[in-house]
Design a protein that fits this description.
- The chain is of the alpha/beta class.
- The protein has a single domain, classed as Maf protein.
- The protein has 6 helices and 7 strands, in the order βαβααββαβββαα.
- Strands 1, 2, 3, 4, 5, 6 and 7 form a 7-stranded mixed beta sheet that branches.
- A hairpin with a 5-residue loop joins strand 5 and strand 6.
- Helix 1 crosses helix 6 and helix 5 crosses helix 6.
- The longest helix is centred in the C-terminal third of the chain and has 17 residues.
- It is globular and about 50 Å long.
- The two termini are 13 Å apart.
- The relative contact order is 0.17.
Length: 199
């Protein structure tokens, strides 16, 4: 069976990606399972550069089709921040709850609503080189109190536009339809099937 590698060490992200990709009918593995010690510094200036960097390095070194993504939360009141720094807002080793608290403290001086969006770019890299990209966006707003116990990252304070529920309150099935990552993977799906040679 053909393999597809997830270029991530984030358990929540890997869980979501596996669910989104399961209908491909390929074996999905992640870098932790493979025991690789390769670490990628996200030095890109865009989501696309970071996603391509992660997917490309693993694909080249491990000779396996690889999908990587880079995702950010863009808050209008903060002129698009934290953006590329969303996963590193509080520095190395910061927990999800620390990121949420820090973001809310940055937003305190600004009037609500704190409109925002999640943006995700996924990159598919082949063992012989070449990168395919797709992007997904989910609009919403940041709220001051955490709601829900699903998801990860900023999900408990991100109210999904048109749903009146946070990303942490919706079911995994709903998230797989409306999230930024779901939309990016859906956009990449025809290319994924073609590259991997699956129906």
């Amino acid at each position: 069976m053909k393999q597809l590698l997830l270029a991530s060490r984030n358990p929540g992200k890997c869980r979501e990606m596996r669910s989104l990709l399961q209908s491909l009918g390929v074996e999905i593995v992640d870098v932790i399972e493979l025991g690789t010690k390769v670490r990628i510094d996200e030095t890109g200036k865009t989501y696309a550069e970071n996603a391509s960097l992660k997917a490309g390095v693993f694909a080249e070194q491990l000779k396996i089709w690889t999908i990587g993504d880079d995702t950010g939360l863009e808050v209008d009141a903060l002129e698009g921040a934290p953006g590329l720094r969303s996963a590193r807002l509080v520095g190395p080793g910061g927990l999800d709850v620390d990121h949420r608290k820090t973001l809310l403290s940055l937003l305190e001086p600004y009037p609500r609503p704190w409109t925002a969006r999640f943006r995700c770019v996924v990159a598919l890299a082949g063992p012989e080189g070449g990168i395919d990209l797709a992007e997904g966006v989910c609009e919403g707003e940041i709220i001051p109190d955490e709601r829900g116990d699903g998801g990860f990252g900023y999900d408990p304070i991100f109210l999904v536009k048109g749903m009146d529920r946070t990303m942490a309150e919706i079911s995994p099935e709903e998230k797989n339809r409306v999230s930024h990552r779901a939309r990016a993977v859906q956009a990449l799906f025809p290319t994924l099937k073609m590259r991997l040679g699956v129906e």
